[in-house]
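Worked problem 6 (solution included).
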Amino acid sequence: MGRDTGTDDDRVRVRPNPRGTRPRTKNRPEHANATGALVLGVDRGRYHLLLDDGTRVVGMKARELGRGARTAVVVGDRVGVVGDVSGRKDSLARIVRVEARSSVLRRSAEDGDAPGVERVVVANADQLLIVTALADPEPRPRMVDRCLVAAYDAGMEPVLCLTKSDLADPAPFLAQYAALEVPALVTSIVGDTIVGLEAVQEKLAGRVSVLIGHSGVGKSTLVNALVPDAYRATGGVNLVTGRGRHTSSSAVALALPGGGWAIDTPGVRSFGLSHVDAESLLRAFADLSAVAAECPRGCTHAADAPDCALDEWVASGTAGPAGEARLVSFRRLLAAKNGTAEA
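Solution. The predicted structure is:
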């Protein structure tokens, strides 16, 4: 039975509204004096930040930024912080603003999710270093293809980094990507030395690079060589499944001794791409995109697409062997995008 709040009985005590009577407003403080910072890592709702003056602080996201994937703060983000920015132990700053991003590396939770369901992995990176072993574990070209799609969608430069070349010849694997003209770095381990490390250091110097790869390919070993004080955990390959064991548990930005940042990410076994459409992938292929402008409306550009201008381009001989190889590579990536999440 409900309480009669309109009674005049003095014995009835009517409590005030616990939420207060002040009207809510959509206006939020601008925090014009917020201190700039770079997000280095995220751990259970706490953000490890590097202020513009070099101070390292821990912060939390302000309530006014909201919740959910659309307002997520990720490694690589440039943010504005207020509050205690002293960096003292147990002090806590507050993230009140996320600056515009120059690039966004995204992945869908799973390929079966509805369009628009996606996660931002890293923000503001220049290049994606796709690390894969040539053996032990065996390379997974479809996984590499999916990472290439993610890089093209993000507007990042993809780079292949092949490890364990002492166990297998890299030439056959690289031949699959020759038409894409993706830069490639090859490393091997001799004793305690990583042969080819200097070329990797040169490629990463002065840039913000994301390292991604499935477990067991030697990514953490490479990171530890690039950043000697990183102490990223390393692991071997499961003898039963033939796959690597997960070692890194979260993304983290590490300052490179020669300048720039290496963002190490957890080992992945799948990379959902349901958020990527054919047109966004096609934009990474300027030569093909120009030809595809003549395609009929709604063309998928796939191998079975009717009246696709890309097929006419090849059939006419205008494309030449290089153009035809580029089209084959593009359609392979398109097929990988539409395949299963685990590859």
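Discussion: The chain has three domains: 35-98, 104-264, 278-337.
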